[in-house]
Design a protein that fits this description.
This protein is of the alpha/beta class. It contains 8 helices and 6 strands; from the N terminus they run βαβαβαβααβαααβ. Helix content is about 50%, strand content about 15%.
Length: about 230
Amino acid sequence: MSAEAGADVSVIFHSNEAAAASVVDACQGYGRRARAFRADAADERQLCGAISDATSALGAPDGLVVSAGVFEGHPLEEMTVEFWDRVMAVNVRASFLAVRETVKHLRAAGKKGSIVLYTSTAGQRGSSVFSAYATSKGAQIMFMRSMARELGPEGIRVNCIAPAWTETDMADASLTALGRENVAKDFVLGRIGQPADVAAATVFLLSDLAGFITGTTVTVDGGMDMRG
């Protein structure tokens, strides 16, 4: 959707090369430049290297979207330190690394910019079994608010998007186990979220239409929060 709106796009992916190539092809179909780079988002060397390579290939960024995430849950007594650390590494450390590296390139180019972190409604409400996930998503929100304060004087905006259940590969197993019809009943709008719903909010926050919006979390949940 960013390419459709007129942006060149860099995609950083972990393992699904075919999906990344599909995104690149779609962007190029809109006449935009697009490249894909492989990296483990929790690995400082790999992620910073990929962002640097993307900047070399397409120029200094105007915006950043951080969507990497781990969505797994265990009851408290079953959680290990290794599990907890892995969730925090992908969901929180990767956000920090991506923002730090991107801001470095924005400053070097004398640019303003817009940064969007994908959090979750779980980070706003908490979760009994997905507590590590919810904690990491809440941490993202506080990191976003802190960065909005720190970077705002430079004209760099930082916001979060908090989707509820959305039809993604990451959520597929859980949605199947819970039953999609049962999950859909929790939405005031009567359906589970789609990637396009989140993408539309993302394009808005990246654009000049949101030029006076920073430090906030846009909840994309089809009214689910009103159901309690």
